[in-house]
């Protein structure tokens, strides 16, 4: 449901959630656009459903962005516009906590900006930022980006920087962080 209030940032493990990721034309939420959005629905700690779509940003994708995520102008030429895809994403995430890596500072800014622009309100889902959790629970690591965390936990990083692959990677990282938060111990492998 859309409204005027953002959800709360949680610093805890929740068993029912949607992990999501965006790929964009750049890092500026005031001028850049979404080119891919993916989400993985998790109920009781198990993946139940997926959502993924390329998005036509109505502009050329800069070389630097394509170099990172591998998404080209040709790939998005016939993709739907974000107003349609975002509506489907909001329906997919209804009532569930959102989980993502650096979503507080990046992904949610795009979601809030475009939800307000297209629909006059923003999703009020509570959310968990795994970057914040990793910094809190894994202070021994020098870096806390998603691929570093995945490698730390022995999770495949193949296909990193494509949204759906990042969602699956982040879901596994979040489950591992959940073990630490709920049991106060390091998970065994």
Write up what this structure looks like:
Helix 3 (82-93) packs across helix 4 (103-119), helix 5 (130-137) crosses helix 7 and helix 6 (146-152) crosses helix 7 (163-183). The protein has 7 helices and 8 strands, in the order βββββαααβαββααα. By secondary structure, the protein is an alpha/beta fold. The radius of gyration is 16 Å and the shape is globular. The N and C termini lie far apart (39 Å). Helices cover 40% and strands 21% of the residues. The chain has a single domain (7-183), classed as Nucleotidyltransferase, domain 5. A 6-stranded mixed beta sheet has the order 2-8-6-3-4-5, with helices on both faces. A two-stranded antiparallel sheet has the order 1-7.
Radius of gyration based on Cα positions: 16 Å
Q: Which percent range describes the beta-strand content?
A: 15-25%
| CATH homologous superfamily label | Ribonuclease H-like superfamily/Ribonuclease H
Task: Give start-end ranges of low-pLDDT stretches.
Answer: none
Please describe the biggest sheet, giving its number of strands, its sense, and whether it closes into a barrel: 6 strands, mixed
Order of strands, widest sheet: 2-8-6-3-4-5
CATH domain class name: Alpha Beta
Q: What do the pLDDT scores average to?
A: 95
Task: Indicate how many domains the architecture comprises.
Answer: 1
Which secondary-structure class do the elements indicate? alpha/beta
Got a strand count? 8
Q: In one word, what is the shape?
A: globular
Write down the CATH topology.
Nucleotidyltransferase, domain 5
Helical region count? 7
Gross CATH architecture = 2-Layer Sandwich
Sequence of secondary-structure elements: EEEEEHHHEHEEHHH
Helix content range of the residues, please?
Answer: 40-55%
**Spatial separation of the terminal alpha carbons:** 39 Å
């Amino acid at each position: 449901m859309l409204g005027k209030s953002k959800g709360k940032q949680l610093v805890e493990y929740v068993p029912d959630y949607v992990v999501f990721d965006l790929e964009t034309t750049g890092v500026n939420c005031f001028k850049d656009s979404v080119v891919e959005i993916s989400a993985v629905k998790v109920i009781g700690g198990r993946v139940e459903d997926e959502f993924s779509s390329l998005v036509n940003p109505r502009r050329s994708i800069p070389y630097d962005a394509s170099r990172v995520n591998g998404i080209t102008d040709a790939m998005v030429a016939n993709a739907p516009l974000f107003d349609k895809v975002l509506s489907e994403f909001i329906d997919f995430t209804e009532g569930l906590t959102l989980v993502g890596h650096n979503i507080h500072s990046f992904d949610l800014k795009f979601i809030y900006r475009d939800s307000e622009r297209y629909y006059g309100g923003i999703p009020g889902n509570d959310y968990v930022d795994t970057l914040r959790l990793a910094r809190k629970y894994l202070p021994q690591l020098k870096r806390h980006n998603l691929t570093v965390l995945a490698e730390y936990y022995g999770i495949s990083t193949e296909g990193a920087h494509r949204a759906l692959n990042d969602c699956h990677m982040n879901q596994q990282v979040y489950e591992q962080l959940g073990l630490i938060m709920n049991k106060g111990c390091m998970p065994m492998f």
